[in-house]
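Entry 14. Ran structure prediction on the chain below.
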Amino acid sequence: MSEPAANLKINGDRLWDSLMEMAKIGPGIAGGNNRQTLTDADAQGRSLFQSWCDAEGLSMGIDQMGTMFAMRAGTDSDALPVYVGSHLDTQPTGGKYDGVLGVLGGLEIIRTLNEMDIKTRHPIVIVNWTNEEGTRFAPPMLASGVFAGMHSQDWAYARKDAEGKFFGDELKRIGWCGDEVVGSRKMHAFFELHIEQGPILEAEGFDIGVVTHGQGLNWIQVTLTGRESHTGSTPMPMRKNAGLGMARITELVHKIAMENQPQAVGAIGQCNVYPNSRNIIPGKVVFTIDFRSPSFDTQDRMEVALTKGANEIASELGLEIEMEKVGHFDPVTFNKDCVHAIQKASDRLGYSSKEIISGAGHDACWINRSAPTAMIMCPCVDGLSHNEAEDITKDWSTAGANVLFHAVIETAGIVD
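Output, structure tokens:
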């Protein structure tokens, strides 16, 4: 299979304009985006993406999890497609680039191929996975997890948001529930472009991150139940303070992560305190612990330490405790051939690159179980993500999309 010529490039200005146009949908309050999954804003973002795909002559398929698949035909009807994409949904206070760059980078590949009248043997499919973020309906990467056989569709449909609304009902409400059976598609390969969401590439001056592995993740939801009582009139020794229990477990989580350095992180990112009144000792708290590591052994060791320590804290404070794993995926090793295609593309185009481990979960982590998969990362300012201040430069997005372009079209096979 011949390598693409180094002078083949995407249109960086056009990609940037598309990113800014998508960012107008579901604007945040501080310059970012709030386009949470299965909201009206999500539906509007999907419609804009479909209109761009229609303009390029792509055929659109939608599966029963709402995932969008926009295909450009190849010259060989028997060749499996090369897939490329990410997600359009955001955090409640999300940035303009997390996920979106991967979807619109895929669209820019198609626009460039059409503009240059280049044909590929394998079809190319742009994919927008539903509910990657998991912020409204836990766990994250929900649709790709169903696609890869990690969750059942019925289980996914039964996920509830904070208002008690079901995933399946909301998917139908916004009008993006397709007929296609989830997971029925076969892939030749899958590539995902994403911002790093960490500080390494920018700090060390690299253009491209060649992602070789992904950290495993455990989300453990803890419910502590004590007794609501007056903050002023309840003697200290007689309190059953669920808030104190959460505070001590928060410290425990940090301690466990620090004891497992350098390949571990941990924090509590979401918590709800009841009744959340100034003068009432909390009678109940619900919070989620996020542990991550690229090592199976470390991941297991942290969970064991948490279970033991959290139960000891609850017992000492007279609290009831329930622990439920609400999100999990194992550490990931990406496909060597796909990783090599990314490295070759970066070298061919003259970009500086570094092999890195993804600290965040991505749809590619699940799809890696179903098809040869790899990821490309570009820097982001100060490593900041899941924040409205998330920022990248046009040059970074262009470099990442160019490497994506070359890796995808080499894998899809240019037809002379």
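The chain has a mean pLDDT of 97. Will compare against last week's run tomorrow.
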